Amino acid sequence: MSPTSSSRSSLYTSLYTSLHTPSYTPVHKSSIVPSSTTKSTQFSTSSSSLFSTSSTTTTSNTPQPPSPFSVCPVTPLLSTFTLILIDLAFKRLFAFLNLTTKFPSALAACLTLLSTFFLVDRFTPQTSKYPVTDGSTSETLFFHYFNPGATLLSKWLALFFVPSLVTLPLIPRPPAADLIKLAVILPIGFLFSLFSTAFLVSSVTKLKGLSKVSPPPPPDVTPNVTQDSEVLELSETPPSPSPPAPPFEKSTLKNLFRVSKVSFVLSYLLTRSFVSFPVPLYLSNFLRATFYLSFTLSSFVYGALLPPKLTSYLHPLITCTALTNLAAVFRGRLVSGLPYKEELMIYTMKNLMPATFGAGDVLLFLLGPAVVSLSISMFQKRDLVSSNFPEVLATAFGSSFLGLLVTSLTSKSLGLKSSLSLSLAPRCITTPLAISVSNMLGGIPSITAGSVVVTGLLGANFGPRLLTIFNITEPTTRGLSIGAASHGLGTAAVKGENDAFPFAAIAMATVGTVTTVMATVGKGIIKRIVS
To answer: Which residues contact 421 (CB under 8 A, 6 or more apart)?
Structure first.
């Protein structure tokens, strides 16, 4: 090993030890003994330990240094940029092979990257892996490079289908009869997916003959010192719930809103009559796109920072969509002089040319990398999938098949137009994949995005309550049912259920993937059903 490599390794080891070595010594319950020399014992407590005594337990295991990527501040941007490049490469490849309309290139990239993770992990020795943030597992450097980018994209994932919702007013309004049919199909489809998945999972669990109830988490144990006793007695106390961390910092909202204000003022000044010089088209377009992009981001963050009781019914997507449409009204009157719908048309221009791109085009462009990043989440949960493989398999294939079939048959039985029926087919999968499926089937992406949001809101607001009412309390069943029936929004609703939440995330990813594959292979059958 070179001196440089040795010093770098020493630096990482020192840094990791200073940051992660606890100031206490964990003591097992069996190692606590009465003290015969003193009636008071000093100890230090922590949320992850019991307490320490004068006897020190040493360990020979030196903590492994963190991955170099975990201490690099630009890694999230670098890994996100790499995910974008992978998505672009597969788009070019699929266009060259004339496969664009046959299978989503982003999903192919996701599955390819997932396979690569397994291969790299298989041939990487354990000694060459680095611990993840929570310290639960160790992963390869290849994984650590992509993980920050996936985390960044997942934080903003819901925002990437805002353009389809913002531009909903531009779609010709369906007849009132069709709107009523849509209002009937979506709740029926959600309820069927929720309870059919619960039935499938519970049936598979019974066939396995195993109880899937997770053991309760270990209670917090605190020392109970009495004045007349020299023995430290352990007493169990219920954990005190800590308030959930806000999804975004308030400074993020302030900075984004500041950018939107500056870009709005500059656009206003450049369009006034006292500006005698010609304004370059790319400059005016850049200011317009910057305003809409920063305002969309800031309104989404604002909606996410509202009180939890309000956001449980008013999702940030709804807040963001409403405020962005309101911004289009004011900008049209004060800056461009365009009517509302004409102003809204320039929100998404369906290209990324510097002189004509819109804010919505930037967000839609990131849908592909967001789909590719799902491979990181699926790989990270591989052990959980392996230990519950029959349940996950039944959910992925059973829920996907029944969801597509029942939605198509219900739409057909109610006489819904084929374009609307095809738009509803992928209603219960995450939006990036749903829009891809809608495009392949010939649906209307904005209607698809709206149906996905409504389905997600139904799952977030009523899914856990309905399962509880019907006495479905087993964590595996609850998580898989919510994730399969209401994708990411429903998954977020069970984030407080520590045992159910991972299964909801698994169901969201696997059902989305399998549904996309099924829709691709059987799109001819689906079209015949709804026509």
So the answer is: 407, 408, 411, 412, 530
- Angle, in degrees to the nearest 10, between helices 501-521 and 400-413: 60
Residue 12 CB: number of other CB atoms within 10 A? 18
Query: Which of the residues in the chain have pLDDT under 70?
Result: 1-65, 70-71, 74, 133-136, 210-244, 273-277, 279
Kind and range of the H or E element at 220? strand 220-224
A 10 A CB-CB count for 191 gives 15
**pTM of the predicted model, to two decimals?**
0.73
Angle CA 240–246–248, to nearest 5: 160
CB 369 within 8 A of CB 382: no
Q: What is the pLDDT of residues 326-379, one digit of tens each?
A: 999 999 999 988 999 999 999 998 888 888 899 999 998 998 898 898 889 889
Task: Supply 118's token pair.
Answer: 């397994």
Would you state the structure tokens that stand for residue 90, as one six-digit string? 């597969």
Q: Which of 318, 320, 305, 313 is nearest to 247 (CA)?
A: 305
Q: Nearest 5°: CA angle at 99, between 528 and 428?
A: 55
Rounded distance between C-alpha atoms, residue 62 and residue 158, angstroms: 41
- Cα 481 from Cα 494, distance rounded (Å): 11
Local structure of residue 442 (DSSP, 8 states)? T
Beta bridge partners of 131: 138
Contact 296, 162 (CB under 8 A): yes
Give residue 58's pLDDT.
Answer: 41
pLDDT in tens, 59-99: 445 556 677 776 677 688 999 999 999 999 999 999 999 88
How far is C-alpha 305 from the geometric centre of its chain's CA atoms?
A: 17
In tens, the pLDDT along 311-330 reads 877 878 889 999 999 999 99
For the chain, the straight-line distance linking the first and the last C-alpha, in angstroms and rounded, comes to 68
pLDDT computed for residue 315 by the predictor: 79
Q: Which residues contact 306 (CB under 8 A, 6 or more apart)?
A: 314, 316, 319
Q: Which two tokens stand for residue 33?
A: 């003994």
Q: What are the CA-CA distances from residue 210 to residues 54, 198, 203, 213 (Å)?
A: 44, 16, 11, 9
d(CA 310, CA 333): 31
Residue from 320, 383, 315 nearest 138 by CA: 383
Between helix 367-380 and helix 431-441 the angle, nearest 10°, is 120
Contacts of 340 (CB under 8 A, 6+ apart): 169, 328, 329, 332
Cβ–Cβ under 8 Å, residues 509 and 491: no
**Residue 376: its H or E element:** helix 367-380
